[in-house]
Every structure is written in structure tokens, then in C-alpha cells.
Amino acid sequence: xxxxxxxxxxxxxxxxxxxxxxxxxxxxxxxxxxxxxxxxxxxxxxxxxxxxxxxxxxxxxxxxxxxxxxxxxxxxxxxxxxxxxxxxxxxxxxxxxxxxxxxxxxxxxxxxxxxxxxxxxxxxxxxxxxxxxxxxxxxxxxxxxxxxxxxxxxxxxxxxxxxxxxxxxxxxxxxxxxxxxxxxxxxxxxxxxxxxxxxxxxxxxxxxxxxxxxxxxxxxxxxxxxxxxxxxxxxxxxxxxxxxxxxxxxxxxxxxxxxxxxxxxxxxxxxxxxxxxxxxxxxxxxxxxxxxxxxxxxxxxxxxxxxxxxxxxxxxxxxxxxxxxxxxxxxxxxxxxxxxxxxxxxxxxxxxxxxxxxxxxxxxxxxxxxxxxxxxxxxxxxxxxxxxxxxxxxxxxxxxxxxxxx
Length: 406
Ligand code: MRU
What we know:
Helix content: 25-40%
Structural class: alpha/beta
Order of helices and strands: EEEHHHHHHEHEHHEEEHEEHEEEEE
Number of domains: 2
Pathway: Amino-acid biosynthesis; L-methionine biosynthesis via salvage pathway; L-methionine from S-methyl-5-thio-alpha-D-ribose 1-phosphate: step 1/6
Catalytic activity: 5-(methylsulfanyl)-alpha-D-ribose 1-phosphate = 5-(methylsulfanyl)-D-ribulose 1-phosphate
Shape: globular
Number of helices: 11
CATH class of the largest domain: Alpha Beta
EC number: 5.3.1.23
CATH topology of the largest domain: Rossmann fold
Active site: 275
Bound molecules: 5-S-methyl-1-O-phosphono-5-thio-D-ribulose
GO molecular function, one term: S-methyl-5-thioribose-1-phosphate isomerase activity
Largest sheet: 6 strands, mixed
């Protein structure tokens, strides 16, 4: 069974239901929370109950769809005080204000902005709430379907590319790969981007093992970084790798150089996701990605960014134009998790038999901290950008030519 970050129940078209997996509670608690309007969407994105650039965009679009569904309900419109019901043009302007508000939930990932821009066009062209509801429904269904389909394509593109590079290098043995943050099913509609490539490499590996192929390059192990301070690597990627039975070992962010230099299993590549790739290939992704890229260059390890076309920002020429979100200091000074027994890791339950969430202080409360959520990796450090339409590499002058994507 594949992991599902978003449950979208379309069985009753007039009463669509959306639930998102609360990622703050993983890996110990699996709980879906309902999303019914833009306020729910905003809150779940800002608090990072849902995170990962594609998943943020899909939850954002779904929350707009649900709000439009409410606009078509007489009882809701009677109770609410925000929308002007008498004048459709005014309602449209107010909807646009709501999109702007939703966009302010997290600024770095471009996917949400791209989806909301598309929806803004649909709002502009709609002559009634019924036609708008239909148009946004179709758009959002496509967004979810395409994301899953594109991830599988990206997975195959990335795996094929690495295996052919290894073939050219005459490398015919087991190897390991590195990854950071969570780019899997939990961050997307399914399969994942960078983790999708890793899934694809693992499928290839299993086929080669089953058919008894000898002296072939095959991925034997994954080393996900814990991804401090929010621990998407240890809470989410580790959870996904265990779920899929992919051999893996979680490593601290601070161990990259030592791991690469001391690993018995040669590490041949790092695969990372992206929140925004700009025209020259500079890439914003989870904090720690840049240092991983620098170390990969130092040790001659291939470094790949894996992302769908919707993560490309064709308006921004270079990385210095990217706004990097800073998260609250508490997210750094406190570690958030589920209280567990220290020996067997079973959750400690409260009087209602529910697992207890806890925050543990790991820095003086008054200490000033800097807590950027992302960093920007210059394209010089990137060997390839894996997308659903192919793998982009640099020309002899060291430039990516991403024009085919725009
Ligand atoms: O802060 P997050 O957890 O939303 O950051 C997520 C990442 O940086 C991912 O690598 C990126 O969004 C791509 S997810 C397919």
C-alpha cells in the first residue's frame, strides 16, 4: 500500500471531502485532518502539517476548490460575512484576495504560486460560481493526476541517467546514494521526486538481483540525512524507506564528509528535491542542500536536483532573486516529537490513550538564532536537473539550458 499525504474523496461531486495526513505527528501517529476552506489550507501549510513543494500546491488548490464549493452553498453564504453575494465581480475580487492570503503561507516554493496563478485566470474568466467550481475542479484533478504520473517518469529518467553514467565509467558494482529532507509520497501525490528516483533505482536493483545478474551497477543502500532542525529526513524519509523495505541508514547532517570518505559501499550520487529552480539552474531546497552539494563536488559524487516543470521559476534569472523563508526560532530551539519509552520507543499515552506530543528545549530560550528553511545551491554544483521531460545537463560553458522547459 502506498503512503498517501492527501485523501481526496470525489465520490459525491457536490460534497467533495479532503483530508491531509498530519506530518507533524509522524512517524508515531497517523492522523488525517479535514480541510474545508482556504483558512484550513493556509493553516496546514504554514504549520507544516503538509509540506514539500508539490504537496503544498495541491493542498492549496484543493482548499480553493472547497471554498468555491462553499460559495455555491446557500446556507454557507447566508452565514458568512466576507463575500459579497449580490455582485459576482466583487466576489471574484474577494476570491483573488483570498488567493493572495493563501500564497503568503510559505513564500519559497514556487509550485503554490504557479497553481494559484492558474486558478486566478480561471476566476477571471468565470461567469458564475457554478462554472468556476467546474473549472477549478478539473484543474485540481489534473494537478493531482499529473503529479503522480510525472513523478514516476522522473524516477525512471533519473535512474536511467545515473546507470548510464556509471556504465560509461565502467562501474559494475553495488553503490549507495544520499538524499536530504523528504521528497517522497508524503511531499507529493505519490512516488516522489528525488525519492522517486531512489524508488526507481531500487526497483532496478531488485530486478537485477532476481535475475541473478552479476557485475552490474545497482543501488544497494540509501543514506538519508536527518535534516535538522525540522527532521523531515528522520521523521518522514526514514518512515517511507522503512515502509518500502529499501535498505537504508539514517545519518546526521554533520556526518556527510566522514560518511562519504569512510563508507565501505561507494556512494555514487546524491538526489535532492527543489522548491524553486530559476532560469540559470540555481536551486532553492531544504537548508543543508548547498553543503551537501559542495561536499559531493569535493568527493566527485554526482549531485542531481529532481523536480517537475511546475518547480521552475522562469521569471527569476538567478538564485540571488529567491526569497528564502525564515522559520520561527522556536522550531530550532525546541525539538518537537512524540513522547516515547526510551528503551523500546513505544509511545507514551495520555489518560485518553492518545500519544503525547512533546517539545524539548535544546538551546537557551533567550538565544538569538538564525533559522532559514531553505538554501540556494548555485548551478555550478549541480550535475543534472531531472524532470518529467528529461534530464538537463550543462553545456561546455557550464550553463544549463532550461529554455525547453518554458
Ligand atoms: O520545508 P519543507 O519540508 O516544505 O521542505 C521541503 C523540501 O525542501 C523538498 O525538498 C522540496 O519541497 C521538494 S519535495 C518533492
